Predict the 3D structure of the following.
Amino acid sequence: MQWGFSLPQGLSSVKVRDLIKEELENDLLPLFMEDKILGFAQMTQMIQEGENDILLEIIKELKQEFERTSLLVIPGFQDKVAGWPKPLPDFLEKMVISRALKEKRLVVALDPGLGKTVIGWALAALIPGTVLILVPADLVRDWLAKARHYFRQFPQDVCVVSSVGKRVSPKLQEEIKKARVVITTPGLIINRQESNTEPLSDFGKILVEKQFQALVVDEAHEYRNLKTKSSQALLALERQMDGLDIVTLLTATPHHREPADAAILAALCLPQEFSNPRAY
């Protein structure tokens, strides 16, 4: 395999090493998506023929990571979906799932049809703690339908909240308290009372009280306008969840026009560096 880059000076620096590892990973990933056996054979050949010690070290490290990724099993998932030629999840999806669990906070930018919903449900199945999934109202039905395809049996610890009355009923509060996974829509967490500047609705505050360990946000690009109530509510939700450990943002278009489009993504994934998204 020909190297697709020239080795820069100062190769020992951590940053340059990470860039080389990332580029090698990007070069190898399409091969693994097509045939992982062929992919591992290619990596073995690269190790045998390699001459640069640092490159050899990186390739061996990648091979170990790819081996761990290939062995990833999602609890409750079927091996394949009827009528779908790929395994469930496929190698790319496994790579993203592993990265999300390792990095803790991640923007998953994939084109439509490349498995963002698979990744979201897989994370919900793998994370042992409580998980909040925010999905646009018009996609909730799709997420639930896909879950019934992915899982051998629809998980019993999932609470779906697609509507809330003026007051959150005690029954719904109890269901949320008992659930490990809550899937709901961003519109329900917004405070729509003009006289109140608090960004979160009463329902949003109840979600904060549950103190989820993980947050999955579908169509995250819809929050690019920091002035909208939905963006302010999402930021308030994330900031007030003290126990939040994993944040995965799913989108096909992380950057639309201006650099500021990515401000809220940066604020959610790197809250310490971007405590104020407007400064991004």
In short: Strands lie at 105-109, 131-134, 158-161, 181-184, 214-217, 246-251. Confidence is low (pLDDT under 50) at residues 1-5. The first strand starts at residue 105 and ends at 109. The CA atoms of residues 191 and 197 lie 8 Å apart.
